């Protein structure tokens, strides 16, 4: 088990994650991945601890992943599902959280359809001076940090299974394709992948790219104007460099300075994003976007932004494809490609999810425990 | 662990609870409260036992509390939620209970919207000669014994954390405010609190006071008539003394005779109930009472019966406020008061809930186990 | 624990179960029945293993039974309920199953309203070369093998509690009464009971008998024509012998040849099926059959095919009645008969269910574990 110091009390966003923190999560997850390959895939690390899954927005996949991660750490789990709950009638979300606090919860895993709810609960816990940790399992269109961390872990372990670390991605080209505008997965991935020194290329129809980014978009059809801009992020001191072409990467930097120059490229077409890409991350398309007239048709969307074996020929030969799931087969990705183990990392992502969530629960709970035993 | 004898096989109502039984629950819960302060909050007491949560009426708060209590005793839990269940189609509730019996359930925790269901199931189990225990987790407008016991524990441990016991409440003035008529919480609390020798003052609008009590109400505005009455309870041999004023308390009595003279006072206004009160228990207001024309408006209700810091000035200086939750902020209690740790015991109640429910499960299961180990 | 070899990787159907396999399940279940009579009803056999309950069709009874069986083997359980799930939106059932595979599931217990889903998932797992086992917990109108195995275990342990085995049923007359057409329970029971050498008599209104069988029906009112036919099953090499009367049983055969001659008799009336029966299995009547005009009325159905004490007088004196539950009291079976322990095995079936499901989970998981310990 790595002995890296971990001082973070909540995991709410990846915006201020340091390289050391990324590496700690990756290395801890690698240790748990090893545990999961044993015959008895369970450690007593969090025995007697209570993990409350407070899913105000329904989820089966993410909740099951956290539930299994907690069980494999021997924690006790309380599942709260707002849909079938008689709580929250009249009381606030903070009241609900405080009720679980008072029952003795150690870690709260929170999903909510509104951005900022996990932050608000974490702030209240801190105000109360209690040791409860909050883990954001997806809040509105804000962030989904555990998903981005499992994506990162999936990619890094592919490159170096024994020692996954952030710097492995330096100089890699990673395309993120699809509904960037509404995707908390994209938002968290942009933080982690740009922090690694990778070149991150977003590709989406104009209606599904954040307005904030739209003014900086590089449209190759308009000629190669020098559109390089530097934009100050609102939340942090880090800078986004939005370059006009892949030909102006950031200069080589030491591992500790990797987060200084973040490279983000935006495209209204798929092809320049796929060109020589090492990894292609596709995003789930919420079908309700159709009814909001943000998309012409699923067929046309697939024609323009759906990933197929043919389109992958633009990428590096050993390119891999990711998707957070559940996949709309034949929309974001062709059915045959999804099932092709040569290209698809989708199953690995699910497996990584359990290891990464074990790592997060372990790191958040480790202030109260000693170490992983078996 | 206290060595007090416990012969009760079911916990259905507090109507016939003896002082010794109250004290056994309080002392056992205190032991578990200590367990909960350890790093590993788990004991193997009920390992291999099955606790079935049969919640025919939805509940998150109470179910989670019982579920956590059972997990901390290392029991296996089966959750049954009628809302999402394909059972009970055609079969009776007794059939459902017998199915869980046949699966090997040791303790059934039952909530139902109809009064008497837990009693009926317990009677059937006894008729069958099986050892299954039934614990009433709220039945209609009848009783909610574990809630009243956790209220009692919360109050008693505030007075003497190490040795909570019934006699600590002797002579205390406790106000119960709100929808008494429809409240199973109030009904159970009236049994336990009057058994302790406390003076229990109910305050509610006339439409929300039980008709049974209404004829005995002491209305100070009508002058100090001698309205003292003695009323025989239908279910037990115990008597309710409904006195016209706090100036006629029962005479001092030995610990074993405390339940002989129960003092219950009823008010149509809040102020006389609050006057010099040591504790104020507020009840949840079901908003559907509004549509039934039992209430003018939530705002007016709050004006007349809502608890605020200002109104608390009528009480003893160190008065504490309780509420079973979930709270309608700004209705039963002002939002600022609810969050004020100087006055509010609401969080303590939730914490006490786990310890008291561990105690109840332990006592009901103890015929089959030896003692608390760690 | 029996040392019988068990090579089956999935339990999808009883159509190709061998006598040795039936006996292994029965004997293993008997061992677990003994475990369940201990004070601590838990064994560490499947510790660290993950059992996923994938119930695409709602079920409380069967899911609880599998859940308890898994808990008593110390497995970790993931519950998936399609009704409240956000999964399967856009993805296929196979995708959902592969997600649980990727999370590390060892055994999938699957219920679906469409016949063949468990088979399709098992085929996909085999194609992928993974070691996951699939257990059919009821698929459409196809099969429900664990129910038929628990029925078999219930009957066999009644005859010889210490050594339940298939040959105990040789020559017994067993009536299956009710909605044969739509019943996966009936279908699985027909495989196991005819394999045992018992004479199986189906009785149902013509509208609720499978069309496949209808042409061979023995209608005593039409005179005793020689309607004996031999019909080749579509799925296996086994033969159904549909005889015109119980007076032509198959000749005595050695234990290993018991499955050669399967005896199945069909009746449009109840009486010939009950005549001298040793066991009567009643089936649940789905009330929606009424609206499909397959039945006149529940009252008339009960009059013609409902089992009562009076009708049981046609049977052997010590006849027993089974029902998979939940029972429509007063429809398939009279209320008083259901509660009569002299005749009803319904509670025993539920208890057997946990032991039999422990046996199945144990046998499917035993490739990865050593043996039952305590």
Break the fold down into its secondary structure elements and pairings.
The structure is a homotrimer of 374-residue chains.
Chain A: H1 19-36, E1 50-55, H2 61-72, E2 76-81, H3 93-103, E3 107-112, H4 117-128, E4 133-139, H5 145-159, E5 173-177, H6 184-195, E6 199-203, H7 211-214, E7 229-232, E8 239-242, E9 261-267, H8 271-274, E10 279-282, H9 288-291, H10 298-305, H11 309-312, E11 320-322, H12 335-338, H13 346-365
Parallel strand pairs in A: 1-2, 1-3, 3-4, 5-6, 5-10, 6-9, 8-9, 10-11
Antiparallel strand pairs in A: 7-8
Domain Aspartate/ornithine carbamoyltransferase Asp/Orn-binding (chains A, B, C): 170-364
InterPro entries (chains A, B, C): Asp/Orn_carbamoyltranf_P-bd, Asp/Orn_carbamoylTrfase, Asp/Orn_carbamoylTrfase_sf, Asp_carbamoyltransf, Asp_carbamoyltransf_Asp/Orn-bd
Binding site for carbamoyl phosphate (chains A, B, C): 61-62, 111, 144, 147, 325-326
């Amino acid at each position: 088990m790595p002995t890296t110091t971990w001082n973070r009390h909540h995991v709410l966003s990846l915006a201020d994650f340091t390289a050391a923190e990324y590496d700690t999560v990756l290395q801890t997850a690698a240790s748990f991945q090893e545990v999961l390959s044993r015959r008895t895939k369970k450690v007593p690390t969090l025995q007697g601890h209570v993990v409350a899954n407070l899913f105000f927005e329904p989820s089966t996949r993410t909740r099951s992943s956290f539930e299994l991660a907690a069980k494999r750490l021997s924690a006790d789990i309380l599942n709260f599902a707002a849909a079938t709950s008689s709580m929250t009638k009249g009381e606030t979300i903070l009241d609900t959280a405080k009720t679980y606090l008072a029952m003795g919860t150690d870690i709260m895993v929170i999903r909510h359809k509104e951005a900022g709810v996990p932050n608000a609960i974490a702030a209240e816990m801190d105000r109360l001076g209690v040791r409860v940790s909050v883990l954001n399992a997806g809040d509105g269109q804000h962030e989904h940090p555990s998903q981005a961390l499992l994506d990162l872990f999936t990619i890094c372990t592919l490159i170096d299974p024994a020692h996954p670390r952030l710097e492995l991605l330096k100089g890699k080209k990673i395309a993120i394709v699809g509904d960037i505008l509404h995707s908390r997965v994209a938002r968290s991935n942009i933080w982690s992948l740009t922090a690694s020194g990778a070149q991150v290329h977003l590709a989406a129809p104009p209606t599904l790219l954040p307005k904030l980014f739209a003014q900086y978009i590089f449209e190759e059809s308009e000629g190669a104007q020098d559109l390089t801009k530097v934009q100050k992020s609102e939340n942090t001191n880090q800078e986004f460099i939005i370059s006009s072409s892949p030909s102006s990467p950031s200069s080589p930097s030491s591992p500790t300075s990797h987060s200084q120059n973040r490279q983000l490229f935006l495209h209204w077409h798929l092809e320049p994003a796929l060109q020589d890409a090492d990894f292609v991350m596709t995003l789930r398309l919420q079908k309700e976007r159709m009814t909001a007239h943000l998309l012409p048709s699923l067929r046309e969307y697939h024609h323009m932004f759906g990933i197929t074996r043919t389109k992958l020929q633009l990428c590096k030969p050993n390119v891999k494809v990711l998707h957070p799931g559940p996949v709309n087969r034949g929309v974001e990705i062709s059915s045959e490609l999804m099932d092709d183990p040569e290209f698809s990392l989708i199953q690995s992502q699910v497996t990584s999810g359990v290891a990464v969530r074990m790592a997060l629960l372990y790191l958040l709970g480790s202030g109260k425990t000693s170490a992983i035993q078996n």
